[in-house]
Amino acid sequence: MPAPRVSLVHLVTVLPAWMIADGEYGDLAVGRAAEFGFALEPESVDVGAFPPGFAQSGDRVPVTTISGSVLRPSSQTPTIVDAGTLMPVLHGAAPSGDGVLARGRLVVEPLLWSSDGVLWPLLPDGVRLWSVDRIREVATDSTDLDISPAVSEVDHDAVYLLDLSRP
Amino acid sequence: MTTIVRRMAATLLAALAVAATSAGVAHADPRPISDEEYFGLILLPRDEDGIEVPVRNGDQTLGHAKACWKHNFCSLRAIALTIQGRQNKQPPEGPRVVYVAHAVGGGFDLRLRVVVDTSTFTRRGTPPDGRPTGVVTAYCEGMERCPDELNRA
To answer: What integer pLDDT is reported at residue A113 of this predicted model?
Structure first.
């Protein structure tokens, strides 16, 4: 019998400044675990049969590529992609096929993946516990933050990135 | 962007000055509310592109009730003017659009932000009226709660 395989997942996701200012992530801090569900803001979507997977490239705000099968629990929810280790919703795209390959910006999605919302009960794997390894503020240059970005100090012109990992 | 926002100041200031009283209506209530209340339409202002932006009653997680309860941003007039103002609309990020305005009045000098969702998906499903979700939240930059003066202006 083959030994069980454990793979470590690392990813970088965008936390929009308005979400910090809105107070949804007031307890976010490096080294602390937090539950996140994600959304992809796609710049391109190809429809077809693609194996589940995700990849990221680019060192500033990374471009994320996800592929996998499309899940449609109901007409009341946006398109969800089963990308294996991730299950993000697709913002602004509604492919008609059974599978997709989409590229774009991966963002934290607090509103749809809420505990009392329609998605989480249908697809509990869409939200998982992640370890916050780094919080970066990317404006004219990249600044690492080791504490929560305070509501009073949010730079609305900056992009906040979370480096996350999960065993 | 500061220049653009300051350009809005005069318009918003003038409008706030003529506002009769606080427009704060819906303070979040811990009781469960019906979908009818949740999706209830309070205002339907148009932005500079002529796009209708629903302001729904919502609850502690969305809409006017959230803005008022969480951020003390209760003034419907200020929400409407922030949406309607010229050059207040920021480039969309996915389905979310942020409108920014500068408000100056007696005792306050604020930058207002109204966050709008142009999709039809909410945690309770799609709005029965077929319109987009609309205002998700509204807050004053740099503070958790807006000053009361904003709602009395």
So the answer is: 87
- The ipTM of this complex is 0.89
Q: Are B11 and B102 in contact (CB under 8 A)?
A: no
- pLDDT at position B11, please? 40
B88 touches B114 (CB < 8 A): no
Query: Which of B1, B93, B123 is nearest residue A41 as measured by Cβ atoms?
Result: B93
Contact B70 A22 (CB under 8 A): yes
| Record: contact B123-A39, CB cut-off 8 A | no
Distance of alpha carbon B81 from its chain centroid, rounded?
9
Q: Which residue is closest to B121 within chain A, CA to CA?
A: A77
> In chain B, whose CA is at the least distance from the CA of A76?
B125
Q: Can you say whether the dihedral through the CA atoms of A61, A11, A144, A37 is positive or negative?
A: positive
Q: What residue spans define the domains of chain B?
A: 2-152
Q: What is the pLDDT of residue B47?
A: 97
The pTM assigned to this predicted structure is 0.86
